[in-house]
Amino acid sequence: MKKESGTAVEKRQSNSVNGPERIDDGVYYTPLVDIVENDDAFIFQADLPGVKSEDLDISYDDGTLTILGKVHPRQDPNRPYVRREFGVGHFHRSFRLNTDVAADKIAAELKNGELTLRVPKAASARVRRIQVTS
Amino acid sequence: MFPRMLNEYAPLYRLHDQMNRLFEGFFEDMPRTRLLSDAFPAMNTWEDGNAAYVEAELPGIRLEDIEVLVMGNELTIRGQRKLEDHPNASWHRRERVGGQFHRTLSLPWDIDADKVEARLENGVLTVKLPKSEQAKPRKIKLLGQ
Predict the structure, then answer these.
(1) How does pLDDT run across B49-65, given as a tens digit for each residue?
(2) CATH code assigned to B43-83+97-134
């Protein structure tokens, strides 16, 4: 793992983010995520293939943003793969935000298996551009 | 690595994996090991007696950005993923990858191209590839003396 800097820092839930985590109701994988920050907000974009909007749960609690997407099995378990190149399971990932955010204004959109999450900064944390006058 | 892989598929996949490693090396730094192949897109394949089913994860790809082609015993998936540009923003993490992809998969038998069904739902592509009539086993009537 690379050392992270900045204000959006991944919160590690287990001692490894590499392999799938086994939790009671199946296998959980770590989704691929892009995070960008602009003056007003953080934008998280996550790949959640196979997740329907009703199976997506996003929560923010005391600085921790959690993305949880459930994936229903798509294949008859009695038919083995003749070739398997990826694992199918749920998606789970948490991030620690060290910047105050407007939690009630977090907006999520899920389209074609791609989640876009806009997390606005609290007014106190926004960058204010100061006009320099001479 | 693929304990359930049928031997008849193995040499075909190997050839195409070598041809299609567009994203080779990219996933080495990824925070998981769920991808068992470095070809893109990764595909899971299963079959019943009449058809093979191929599934690929293509999140963020729209219908108009992907083509599914069938010829003979080959399935080709090609397309392009456009990732959103974020000008005037700073990146904390960049794990996803955009760009063009192209992958061909050979089956051990000919595909009935007229009956192929492909669906793209929630970022998952599923293609049903029925066997051509010639490829299906036929019961031969035994003749006595």
Answers:
(1) 899 999 999 999 999 99
(2) 2.60.40.790
pTM over 0.80: no
Residues in chain A: 134
Is the preceding peptide bond at B41 cis, omega within 30 degrees of 0? yes
Chain B positions touching A49 (Cβ under 8 A) are 57-59, 122-124
Q: Which of A85, A93, A95 to mutate to test the interface with B (most CBs of B within 10 A)?
A: A85
The tens digit of pLDDT for each residue in A44-68 reads 999 999 999 999 999 999 999 999 9
CA-based nearest distance B37→chain A, Å = 5
Give contacts of A17 with chain B, Cβ < 8 Å: 31-32
Q: Checking DSSP bridges between strand A114-120 and strand B43-47, what pairing results, if any? A: unpaired
What pLDDT sits at residue B22? 42
Q: Is A73 on the interface with B (CB under 8 A)?
A: no
Contact A9, B93 (CB under 8 A): no
Read off the amino acid at residue B35.
L
**Residue B11 DSSP label:** H
A45 close to B (CB below 8 A): yes
Quote the distance between the C-alpha of residue A26 and its chain's center.
19
Query: Would you say the ipTM is above 0.90?
Result: no
For range A2-31, the mean pLDDT: 58
Say if the Cβ atoms of B90 and A81 lie within 8 Å: no
Looking at chain A, the number of H-run helices and the number of E-run strands are 0, 11
Query: How far is the alpha carbon of A66 from chain B, nearest alpha carbon, in Å?
Result: 16
- Tell me how far apart the alpha carbons of residues A93 and A59 are, in angstroms, rounded to a whole number: 11
Best to test chain A binding among B40, B44, B54 (most A CBs inside 10 Å): B44
